[in-house]
Fold:
Amino acid sequence: MKKTSILAAVAGLAIATGAASAQVYSASPGLQIISTATPSGTVNSTINVAGGPSNVTDLNVIFQANHTWDSDVDVVLQGPTGYICLSTDNGGSGDNYLTTRFDDISTVSITSGVAPFNGNYRPEGTLNGWAGSPLTFVGTNYTTMAGFNGTNANGAWTMYVADDTGGDSGIWSYWSLEFNGSVDPVGPPPLGAPTNPTGAGSYSVASIPSGGMTNFRVTVTPGTFPNSTGLGVTVNGAAVGLGTVLLVDDGTNDDGIAGNNIFGLNNVVITAAPGDYVLPFTVTDGQARSSTGNMPNLNIQGPPPACPAGTQPASFAGVASFDALNSANNAHLNLGWTGTDAIQDIHVSGRLTRVTAGTFASEARILITFSDASTITLQPFTTTGFTGFLDVTDYVFTLPTPKPVSSITDVQLYESFDDATGAVDSTWTALCLTWNPLLVPIAPSVTGSSTPAAGFAGAPIHLTANVTPGFNPASTGLAVSVDASAIGAGTVALLDDGINDDGILGNNIFGANTTVAAGTPDGLYTLSVTVTDAQSRSGSNTFDVTVNPRGQWEESIDGGGDAGELPTTAQVIAGPDGPVDSIGGNIVNGETDMFAINICDPSSFSADPAISTRTDFDTQLFLFDSNGVGVEFNDDTTGLISRLDNSFVTAPGLYYIAISGYNRDPLDADGSLLWNNTPFNTVRAPDGPGATNPVSSWTGTGGSGSYIITLTGVCIQNTVPCDPDVNQDGNADQGDVDYLVNVVAGGPNDTGIDPDFNRDGNVDQGDIDALINVVAGGACP
Structure:
């Protein structure tokens, strides 16, 4: 019969400094494990825990025994509330449990371990094949050591060891209980040293005015061995009058995700004196572990700078400096400034608070736009990188040219370098602008121009002047004149009457029509423009007018206006007989100009806008026959300038030449292109889907500008070169031959025809022979 021995003295060891709940309790039974298969062969040892943790959060067990056949050994731990099978029949024929720790977090189960079991193992758990005494244990059969979590450690803990097979024996030398992360130095190295939970604090806004709001955040790293449960975070807010602040990980006050160990409290209102504050925080867990830390520096701002001295203070709060210039998100301020005075200085005071990390204070700009489209840019800060906020007190910007206070049309806040597109870079938590009026009189100013800027001798031009009235006092009785004597037009008075100007009365845009004198040489001419007011002030300026070469046929003069786009509306080149050297004109609004011409010498025909510098846009040239059917086309020959030759011109007669800017092209009645768009740099016959059809309309908007087309092989013929009906009886027959024979012989010429029928300069038999040939169906000479 086996004799049971109970350890009389139990040693308790508190491992975790200052934490009485983390303790080791041990015993050294020195009991013989007798080989028997009967319950009476069981030995046991009891540790009576007193002063132990009232709440078990982690339990590990150390077991040491020598035995010559480990698979005979069964081990069970009975605690105050239940029991757990540590090992039954494991290890095969191997020997000994050298230093065995039963720990839930081990990756190796005792059932798969190998003798001599020197290390950390998960317990077997469920009671299995126990033949020792007692046969029935008390309480719950825990499957893991964690089953004891939440129970009181104080009370009797008994370990039972049995050898259920005869033939082998051993000695049980030592066992211990490790509570709540404590480590028994007798055991094997633990799987991990226990660590306390820690935290890192932050604010959503670290610099706020007194009475402002911010969010508290502490990101917690749980403790280990065992892992923290029941985490909690508090902030000591006594320094700012808040007392103890509880942070929660509830998915609302934190980062919006519950249970991810980020604890927070939203919209904390802090009313405290201006200054810098460091608030301590504490992190605790259910394992009675804790750590402390400090929130970052919290700056409570003093009041922002007051509005600067000046007229009509315009104050704003919480306006964002957002994206790059003219982005849709940018703030536009209404200053509400009124009056007739001119602005000399603009003053700015305010507080700029950083929102995006890395943004520079110097990037926060203010763009002010005036009604004349001029702008000024205010840059209140020169500081680059900053944190928190910066104040500016009475930044002064002096306008290079004073402007009427009422002429401000826009005030835009923007970032000169956009650090966060689509998001706020910084915020003007306070911003105030004032202005000072100009104290000295300012004369009116003027700028001039002509339309077109490049004309030609004998052609009309329109002169325009834009006037900025004077100030202090405001101009009245404005008058404008242009000295146009350089182009032979004398002094021209310009009016702001809604008729001679831009059609709008009283908007300080003056205008008048004049004409470049005939015979004015080509070149660049500088004209002077002068404005005066009833306050005896004046201003002047200059502008240039270019006189270009004149075409022999000018669209606006000889043609009386804009040439049409189709054969039915084309300008007809008319005049006395002789060659046509050039056609001049202007393309406006991207349309097409078409002219009817007579190609009298197909072998020498050419059309070239590139010969003259007057042509100033990317041209296209088209040639159509008398029926409007395409003959040839060219887009680019010399650079972007077009040129036509006689590649496809085979006979003299009526043709239509058209000029347009790239890419305005002719269509037939079905809307099909007469020419394909490419290739660009060759003279081509029609090759588009509508190649065989006459032009009916045009598609696309081309360029606009001035042009002159230099021509060869084109002439004007007002008389029919050979009309065989010389006797004017309506028929070309033998009677016409008889009539011409009589005239050549010196007889009367009642119809007044030119008897030089073959146009060789002589009246002789050759004229009679030529007429006979034509009457017989031959070609004109």
